Structures are given as C-alpha cells and as structure tokens.
Amino acid sequence: MSPATHVVLLVLAGVGSGLVGYGAGLASLVSYPALLAVGLSPLAANATNTAALTGIALGGAGSARPELAGTRARLVRFGVAGLVGGAVGAVLLVVLPESVFAAVVPWLVVLGSVVLLLRPWLVRLHRGRLSERSPLVIGVVGLLAVYGGYFGAGAGTLVIATLGLVLPEPLTRIAALRTVVLGLANLVATVIFVAQGLVVWSSMVPLAVGMVLGGALAPRILRRLPEVVVRVVVAVAGVGLAAFLLLQG
C-alpha cells in the first residue's frame, strides 16, 4: 500500500468513525479494522485507535456546545470517573491479553442496546429510585471507562445506555456528555500508550484528523433526528457490533 493510499484510507475511516462514534458509540467498528488493514498488529492498532479516538471528543465537543450547556457539574462528576477508568484500562492493556474481556463484552453490548430500546419504560419504572449522583452510577461509568481504555468497542453504547437511565435529558445531550467522558478516558490512556511506545503516529494522525471532522459533523446531524430514530439506530448498531465481536472471537 502506497503512503498516499494509507493516509486517504485512514482519513476516510476516521470520518466514518467520527460519525458513528459520536452518534452510536461504535467508532472502533470502523477504525480498528482499518488499522489492521494497513498492517498494524492488534496491540499497536488498539493503542493507536485509542489515541485517535480523542479526535471525536475534540470535534464533537466543539460542535455540541448547545448540548453541553449547563452540564459542568455532570462533566466534572463523570469526567473524573472517565479519567480514572481510562488510566486503569490502559494499564490493564499493557499487562493483560485482550481476550480477558472478549467473552463478556458482546453480551454487555447487547444488554446496552436492549436498555436503549426500552429506555422510556425503564425510566418510568425506576423514576426517583436512582440518582445521577449515586456512587453506583458513577462507579458503573468508571468501570465502562476502564473498558474504554482497555479496548473500548461498544463502550460508547454502554455509557449512553447507563446515563440514559438516570438523566432526564434528550439522547443528543447524553451523547455529547458521553463523548466528553470517554474522550477523557481515551486521553489519559493515550498518555500511557505513548509512554510505552505503542502508538503508531503515521497511522494515528490521519485517522485522528478524520475523526475530528466526523465528530464535528455528527452533532449537527444528530440534533435533526427524532429521538426514537436515534435510539433505535444506536440499539440496532449495537447488536450488529455484538455480532461482529462474537464472530471475531
């Protein structure tokens, strides 16, 4: 593969990842196979992908300022969980094989997809029983950030499903919050991966550029769609990702 083809492929993959990553939390479904296709090893592809994923948060947060307005307390609360979880996940990736999570993750993604589909009914069922300030909720987000720093395929779907149960907000606002939280998890994980020499910069830079572009476009598209459409699309895409992960396993 020529250097020009390498760059073009990864920029296009990055744009696609940014669009589906911001909206459905499934960026790695596009970007990770693209990195393998250009010749990276699974470990290098994982670390490089995590570094590039910060581009979605960068592009998405800039375009989602209306959705993020008034969420400073939430950003701090869940952002700290994201930072701590991302750091733990990155360390686990360095010392453990990826197969540790491989068996359980597809089923977690299916569960998250079902939760999204049933969100209106589940919210009515537990209304008033669980607060966004609950240590349980913050802990779950932190654990999902651990997975986000470790491998991350489907982490976005799981976080948006979790937050969707406790935040009385449109999914567009929840998606924006989720993007920032996982962006922080990816950022701190990237620092660790760079220190370990795992990031392939010649692949990370074009992929990240594409993700910034895709992440910037996604909020403008998402806010024009009815919430039920967003919920169904994200849930169906999550089931598709789970099937992909099961087949890969």
TrEMBL record:
The chain crosses the membrane at residues 7-31, 43-63, 75-95, 101-122, 134-167, 187-216, 228-247. The keyword DNA damage does not apply. GO terms for cellular component: plasma membrane. It is a multi-pass membrane protein. Its main location: membrane. The keyword Translocase does not apply. It is found in: Cell membrane. Keywords: Cell membrane, Membrane, Transmembrane, Transmembrane helix, Transport. Belongs to the 4-toluene sulfonate uptake permease (TSUP) (TC 2.A.102) family. This is Probable membrane transporter protein. It comes from Microlunatus flavus. The lineage of its organism: Bacteria, Bacillati, Actinomycetota, Actinomycetes, Propionibacteriales.
